Amino acid sequence: MLTKKQNNILIFIRKRIRQGLPPTIREIASEFKFSSTGTVRDYLGALCRKGFILLSEKKSRAIELTEKAMLSIPILGQVPAGVPVLAVENVEDYFNVDKLFMQQDELFFLRVKGDSMVGAGIMPEDLVLVKKQPCAQDKDIVVCRIDGEVTVKILRNKGNYFYLEPANKNYSIIPLNGNSEIVGKVITAIRKYV
Fold first, then answer.
1. pTM, to two decimals
2. pLDDT by residue (tens digit) across 120-139?
3. Candidates 5, 116, 132, 139; catalytic one
């Protein structure tokens, strides 16, 4: 698990490596307004111990990303695709994906529970990749919090009436109310076959 500051430093390192060169310790210190390069060394040491980077003492731009760092998006618990239940955002693991997704830092995975979205191709135990955002358009598949409970459904808008529609005829629509909040938009679903 990374602290927020460690994660921000890792994102900066990733960005600089994508641009062609890893940052120097002084460049990291300057970016994060650290007064000492020793503070940067402490953060880099923590990232190294946690398996996100490799360091070489003999070079100034000697930071290398491990596979874990280059291609990982957190899996934040579970989300039901049936009757909404309380979802707790805990990082349960990391999922490695193509560098394409690394352009967006506001992404996370949720594991689907239930079968209310099978008609949209989202099956129980699938991982849905979610872009964190507070709004969506009609017919977008969204993760929504209603009265503190979270579910994944299709957002629908009929006039001024907003509701969540399942993709399974065995489930009812869920009207949205003042206690509803869109957590994010589902970008894709990933299924693992045993």
1. 0.57
2. 999 999 999 898 899 999 99
3. 116
Catalytic residue among 153, 169, 180, 185: 153
Residue 116 appears among annotated catalytic residues = yes
Q: Write down the pLDDT at residue 34.
A: 95
| The token pair that represents 160 in the structure block | 């001024």
Contact 82, 116 (CB under 8 A): yes
Complete domains list, the chain, with CATH = 4-70 (1.10.10.10), 72-190 (2.10.109.10)
Residue 163 predicted with pLDDT over 70: yes
Q: Is the dihedral of CA 174, 75, 62, 27 positive or negative?
A: positive
153 annotated active-site: yes
Alpha-carbon separation of residue 15 from 40, 121, 173 (angstroms): 17, 33, 42
